[in-house]
Amino acid sequence: MRITVIGHSTVLIEGGGKKILTDPFFGTWGNPVYARRSRPTMNREDLKDADLVLVSHHHFDHIDRSFFRSLERGTPVCVPRLTTWMTKLSGARNVIGMRPWENRKFGEVDVTAVPAIHWDITLGFVIRCEEKTVYFAGDTFYGGFMAEIGRRFSIDAALIPVTTFRIPMTMGEKSAVKAVAALHPKVVIPIHLGLTPRSLLLRRGESPEGFRQRLQAAGNPAGVVLLPDGEALNL
């Protein structure tokens, strides 16, 4: 299995003969509150042949209407069940609504929707193929459900948000350390790093490196891979 960070929470996971894309977001500006740090390393055209798309929630930095419209009609787009209609309105055609702990198979790829906590209707996903398991958290705060994910799955790589803003939108460094303790992954790849608040008042000094230092200080054996956009990790 191969994991490539395209930018922010858009990650390409290749395995089982399929290209799996998470939370597609190819916009380069952001919005009036958040600026995009850098352009995604691949564009919509490069990835319109994705075999499967996983969408954790419907915030602007996790969906891309132009990309949805570029997909082949039959390409499955998995979303939280209650947001199925929103995803269809956004241009996706083969939308599959999922509930927490629901499982679907796509050829050799096994996908389980898992709980998440955010300021929106949301899910995480566990992807299994080629005897490897990847947990994609989407945007989430720490929660007790993570211990259940850790019990049910032997996670090779956890893709989790580990930075926060003055108004928290995801886990910060301390919460991410607690999450890793509950999940027991072999490797952690920080995501959700592609935006910065335009106002200095909304910025905080937390960072993936700070998270790594806290994890090491806690004696947690999980490795932390600070994967630059465009680079890949082979599991």
Structure overview:
With 235 residues, this protein is of the alpha/beta class. The protein has one domain (2-227): Metallo-beta-lactamase, Chain A (4-Layer Sandwich). The chain is built from 6 helices and 16 strands. It has helices spanning 44-47, 65-70, 84-89, 145-152, 173-183, 208-217, and strands spanning 2-7, 10-15, 18-22, 34-36, 52-54, 76-80, 94-98, 103-106, 109-114, 124-129, 132-136, 157-161, 187-191, 195-197, 223-224, 232-234. Helix 4 (145-152) packs parallel to helix 5 (173-183) and helix 5 crosses helix 6 (208-217). The longest helix has 11 residues, at 173-183. It is globular.
Q: How are the strands of the biggest sheet laid out side by side?
A: 7-6-5-3-2-1-16
Largest sheet: 7 strands, mixed
Q: What is the number of E strands?
A: 16
Tell me what portion of residues adopts beta-strand conformation. Answer: 25-35%
Average of the residue pLDDT scores:
96
Helix content: 10-25%
**Element-level helix/strand string:** EEEEHEHEHEEEEEHEHEEHEE
| Count of separate structural domains | 1
User: How far is the first residue's CA from the last residue's CA?
Assistant: 5 Å
Task: Look at the helices and sheets and give the structural class.
Answer: alpha/beta
Looking at the overall shape, the CATH architecture is: 4-Layer Sandwich
Radius of gyration: 16 Å
The CATH homologous superfamily name equals Ribonuclease Z/Hydroxyacylglutathione hydrolase-like
Q: Looking at the structure, what is the overall shape?
A: globular
Q: Which residues sit in consecutive blocks of at least 5 with pLDDT less than 50?
A: none
Number of helices: 6
